[in-house]
Amino acid sequence: MLALPPEAPAPAAPPARGAAGLVVRDVTFGYAPGRPIVRGVSLAVAPGEQVALVGRTGSGKTSLVGLVAGLYPAWSGAVTVDGRDPRSLTDEWRRRALGVVPQQVQLFTGTVRENLTLGDPAVGEAAIARAAALAGAADLIAALPRGYDTPLQGAGRGAGVQLSAGQRQLLALARALVWDPAVLLLDEATVALDGASDAAFRAALRADAGGRRRAVLTVAHRLATARAADRVIVLDAGRIVEEGPPDELIRRGGRFAALVELESAGWDWRED
Question: Is 22-264 assigned to CATH 3.40.462.20?
């Protein structure tokens, strides 16, 4: 009698939104042995909370975001996103658990819809429209010749509409929100937008029902963004040197207050 092959395991059910947010526990990391960029950092962002990372160039902000996104293994310590190690997430879990908008936006040759959904046919029209509205991209898309079916130029040029840096960022924000992720990472993700558009996006995230359960970690390129956050974390040389609500940090007169004063005086506080 022939033995039947074992049945393949059933695919995992789509993950439900958790209540864990993101947690970084005593993490140290660097790109070269003996030269740490992130040094013993611990932080947590709760569901519904918006936290801003602030620090001068080279302080470790982008490296920390990369660790949370699961791009690198920490030398020591642990990172969890929605209760899981981000490096262990399947594609399905990753899209639902984690939305990331990096400094450099990458669009590919294809339609607006394909760029927003990464070609996933399971994404419905309602989810696409909702994400575009949240990101502030709905008017931009409506003004394109064929709306969501408008072909776009990718990084390698080719046929299609060429978008400005700000327009590309709006689509990148929408793409990160299409799957309604539990955690959203924004690494200077609105640097090409004006202050009003940036503020409108933050307000939309707060007003959104899903956003009230979403943990948001932002690398702030303008301190108005940080001052609108629930909490600010100031990094210097890979370490947390200050943390708290923005108004409280300003009253303390410490590092964050000094950066706000520099920006108010017209200085670029991000550079030494």
Answer: no
